[in-house]
């Protein structure tokens, strides 16, 4: 807290930037959530001083394309990330749900991804490291122009809307 106070005293804005869910990030800074800014979900969701400034958005059609592509591989587990929550299949393995719950403090099970009633802007996958290059190549081709697959380490792939990345969002600050 002393470091934050020093930044504030110098007029330096403290911005938390992460690929993580906004609801997870504010849990790290509950007493500051209305004073600082958050660039969450790899730039797809931005809050400034407690007020939502911006969010990315896939069209319903784009969401259906992405979900359809991900569901083609029955071994692939993923989370759909939205404004209100993140969503995981109620049939996903318990180990996957437990892992994702560490990163997504709002995580709801769904029977059918296509029935999610939320603004979606990111998808997160977890798989063995040796499968990542092949899956990234496949998704890069299948989702070209809609979402960009990026590896985020530790077996994770994030699908992000190409124009909403942390680097682009920071240009506004």
From TrEMBL:
Q: Where are the transmembrane segments?
A: none
The source's superkingdom equals Bacteria
Main enzyme class? hydrolase
Determine if rRNA processing is one of this entry's keywords. Answer: no
Q: Which InterPro entries match?
A: HAD-like_sf
* A GO MF term: sugar-phosphatase activity
State the UniProt keywords alphabetically.
Hydrolase, Magnesium
Q: GO CC annotation: what is one?
A: cytosol
Q: Does the keyword Hydrolase apply?
A: yes
Q: What is its EC number?
A: 3.1.3.23
Q: Quote the PANTHER family the UniProt record gives.
A: 5-AMINO-6-(5-PHOSPHO-D-RIBITYLAMINO)URACIL PHOSPHATASE YBJI-RELATED (PTHR10000:SF53), PHOSPHOSERINE PHOSPHATASE (PTHR10000)
Q: What is this protein called?
A: Putative hydrolase
Q: Which gene encodes it?
A: supH_2
């Amino acid at each position: 807290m002393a470091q934050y106070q020093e930044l504030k005293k110098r007029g330096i804005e403290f911005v938390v930037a992460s690929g993580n869910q906004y609801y997870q990030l504010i849990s790290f800074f509950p007493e500051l959530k209305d004073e600082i800014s958050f660039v969450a979900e790899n730039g797809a969701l931005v809050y400034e001083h407690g007020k939502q400034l911006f969010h990315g958005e896939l069209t319903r059609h784009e969401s259906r394309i992405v979900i359809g592509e991900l569901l083609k591989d029955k071994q692939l587990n993923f989370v759909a990330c939205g404004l209100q929550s993140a969503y995981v299949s109620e049939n996903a393995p318990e180990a996957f749900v437990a892992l994702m719950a560490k990163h997504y403090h709002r995580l709801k099970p769904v029977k059918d991804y296509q029935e999610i009633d939320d603004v979606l802007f990111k998808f997160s996958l977890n798989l063995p490291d040796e499968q990542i290059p092949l899956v990234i190549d496949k998704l890069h081709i299948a989702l070209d122009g809609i979402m960009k697959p990026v590896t985020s380490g530790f077996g994770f792939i994030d699908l992000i809307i190409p124009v909403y990345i942390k680097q682009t969002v920071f240009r506004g600050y």
